[in-house]
Specification:
Strand content: 15-25%
Largest sheet: 5 strands, parallel
Order of helices and strands: HEHEHEHEHEHEHHEE
CATH topology of the largest domain: Rossmann fold
Number of helices: 8
Distance between the termini: 12 Å
CATH superfamily of the largest domain: P-loop containing nucleotide triphosphate hydrolases
Number of strands: 8
Structural class: alpha/beta
Number of domains: 2
InterPro entries: P-loop_NTPase (IPR027417)
Helix content: 25-40%
Length: 185
């Protein structure tokens, strides 16, 4: 959230699984995918800061997420945040075609994507391989640490497992550059 405060993006779309981005005033909450699509369309290429809080049955989440991603991709050139990716992935795969398009073609359309999760073992690994920067905090198991370490070249998974609360390791592919730090509030 610090990066949002510092960067102040004019175009921001959030899959706000926990409602935190809406509650903290970063985005305007939108209650339905239909209303989300209308507001994105109305914004055109202008400013927009919208958050969709997922709703409905758990079995409908992947379809809703897919629609969110398709709408975001059509909007073009914006920051997209997806909170708690593990809730829309099954067995380490995300079966939302819109998400696949967003993470494999989005950079060329001016997207900056933040895919957030507490359980990397459960998310689609394509997001890890496509990421230009990975920031990792405390992880609770080998199952979570190994897939992250596999793309953070030079960072053993044991270093990820040794992180303490608020500590992080950041991996920037270009270079590569590895930074270690601790969040302060």
């Amino acid at each position: 959230m610090r990066e949002l405060k510092a960067g102040k993006p004019k175009r921001l779309l959030v899959w706000d699984d926990k409602g935190e981005f809406c509650d903290d005033g970063f985005v305007k909450p939108v209650k339905t995918i239909t209303e989300f699509a209308k507001q994105v369309r109305a914004a055109g290429k202008g400013p927009m800061k919208l958050g969709l809080i997922p709703y409905g049955k758990p079995s409908d989440m992947v379809k809703l997420f897919d629609l969110f991603c398709q709408i975001a991709y059509q909007a073009g050139q914006c920051v997209v945040i997806t909170e708690e990716m593990s809730n829309v992935c099954d067995g380490g795969k995300c079966n939302a075609a819109g998400w696949r398009t967003l993470i494999t073609k989005g950079r060329t359309r001016g997207f900056r994507i933040y895919a957030l999760t507490q359980r990397p073992a459960l998310i689609d690994k394509t997001v890890l391989t496509q990421a230009t920067t990975i920031r990792c905090g405390v992880l609770g198991s080998d199952n979570d640490a190994k897939p992250v370490a596999s793309v953070m070249r030079g960072v053993p998974h044991s270093d990820l497992l040794a992180l303490q609360p608020l500590e992080y390791i950041e991996y920037i592919k270009k270079g590569p550059v590895i930074n270690r730090g601790k969040l302060t509030f």
